[in-house]
Amino acid sequence: MSQPNPRQNGFDSRDDAFIAMIDRYFDQVLSPQELAQFNHLLNESSHCRSVFQMICRQDQMLLQTRRPERLLFIEALNDNASEDRDVRADLSAWIEQDSSILIESLDLEQRVRIQREADNAAARRRRKAEAAEHRALQRLMLGQSDPIKPIKHVVIPKAVFYGTVATIAAVLALIILPMFESKPVVTAPIDDPISAPQLVQVAVLVEQVDAKWLVTGSAPVPGSALLNQPIHLVSGLAKVRFNNEAQVILNAPCSIEPLSASRIKVSQGALMVRCDTDASHGFTVLVPAAQIVDLGTGFTVDVPASGLSAITVTEGLIEVAPVSTEGRLGQPMRVSTGRTAMVDPILRQVVVRQPVDVPVASTGQHLLPGDTDPNWRIVAVTDDPGFSPRKAVVVKTENYNYDGRRWNLKWLKNDPSSSQWLSFKQIASPIAAYAQCVYETTMNVPDSVDLSSVRLSGQFIADDQLVAIRINRQDVVGSFPTDPSFQKFQKFEVVHGWRHGRNTIRFVVRNTSEAPSPMGLRVELKCQAIKEIDSTAPRF
Amino acid sequence: MAIGEETMIRVLLQEQIPLLAFIRAIVRDQGMADDVFQEISVEAVRRRTHIESVEHFSAWLRRTARHRALNLLRNRRGGAVLLDPQVLDKIEAEWEDSSYSARQNVLAALQCCLDQLTPFAKRLIGLRYREGMSGRQMAQHTQRSEPSVYMALSRIRRALGDCIREKVTVQGGAE
Prior knowledge:
The structure holds 2 protein chains of 2 kinds. By secondary structure, chain A is α+β, with helices and mostly antiparallel strands. Chain A has helices at about 5-10, 15-25, 30-45, 45-65, 70-75, 80-140, 160-180; strands spanning about 200-215, 225, 230-240, 245-260, 265-275, 285, 290-305, 310-320, 335, 340-345, 350-355, 370-380, 390-395, 400, 405, 420-425, 430, 435-445, 450-465, 465-470, 475, 490-495, 500-510, 515-520, 520-535. By secondary structure, chain B is an all-alpha fold. Classes of the chains: A alpha+beta, B mainly alpha.
């Protein structure tokens, strides 16, 4: 590029205002005039564009340290990504380390500030007392007393005097009585209005595990009262009991504000709510763009820093309603056990989803040795160019005749209720040294499910080695180590590569020995996905 | 001749940070940027037979990312496109690619440079990038004025940029 490049030439303090403008652009707080100026600068100045590009890249790297998990899609496809993972692992470690530094520095800062304020107040009191003492001493030494002013006599009618006194007394009563009433309240009533201006106790910290807090004042300990003010759990777990008996477990990082004895606002974080008693029913959780009301249940709430909030009902029933930007409630939706309500904070929409099982067959399930498996085929063998795809057969692993001898394979014993070994024939046939064999089954993903939610989990045993799992002919899982005992299942999970309709799932098995040897595969599969049940857009 | 799948994935991996930065520059939201990147990665794998070279692929990625990002913004309520089309044209044309090793060097340098920040600067960086706070929220949190927070962030990033450049230059010289 011919334009000046900040990575070569650097940028200096004159660019600070423009960088601040970039930040305000991302925060969407530029006024129309500022936005026009921002566009003008980017359009006219290559240097500004270079600074913009540099800051965007730097921001991205800093953001990556916050959300590394989103990059797994590409990394899973590339063996070379391991080095990149190491780099980010280091950065994650830095973030962990930094959070402790952050806490320590904040604690220190707070202690210093409180101490400084206390010192200043004491110094002011001391100076005032000294000044008063000094003035009294001066008057005493000089033999002075307060000047006597002549009294001016004014005659006031009795009616006016008594009337005035009564008025002053009434005014004083009106001023002073509420002051006594507004002293801090120890415990809030359950139906305490959320707009109560004073700090009140609304909950109690019951227990905590490795918890670090960011709070005003001292960090809470088990038994501490929690007030209606924001608190931030930086790390660890904490169990809180609200005054209406609702129990909430916070999982850090978590930013919440207990609003009253029966309401909590969650800005970020994961929490689990239990409302087992009658008194706790009606407990309300506010998340960005939605309100959740318990109707006698347990549920979890996950509010990420950005993106969709998820509320999953573990037991019972809840009501979720979108909330407009003006704070008005939309049409509530009831969500029952096992279902998840997703809240889109931008669209202000609630979508209810439910996990569903996607049918997929394990090898040889509910069949007998020698049966062909209608759901599994062997589609390719590398040592046989003339091989044609065929149905796989359930293998007899014990006490069978082959080549004039009785054999017992050392494979894990078949279990027809869950899975069995498959090969070409009832008696496990040998394949050539280092040859590979491809097993295939299919799975139909309904159009109604969200593809990004399809999760195939399973376990396998292979003789000799599973070298790849392919979804729709794309490798999605690499090779697994060989288990020479052929007795232990190895687990795997596939979360991408899916499409609606028919999907092929292939397992590539390799003979790792230098001589022909029996080949077999045993797989147990389970697939779950999320299906949209209902959704609503707010109509205000 | 189409590029191989391995090459395609390598390029996607190399382009990850610059491309995500480019998308976020348009949509101003990390979650949306992730979604767009995911979409175009899948689209790239699907269309790999039509992509002739690495250069062609890089250009295709940026062009597709821009269109997907703009479509996503238009389809979202309140998702306004704030950059003028001619500005987007210039930014797209000038957005630089990065090599895998260069990115590794920069990430390593960033880690060192973050360690050298003052506690207050670290606190601001944590609030901005880990907590995802806006300038206004940071100002409330740190009890400072909004302009002073934005200015402090600018200076920190400038200092980080200088530090990274210095370290990468030294590494390059040493190699």
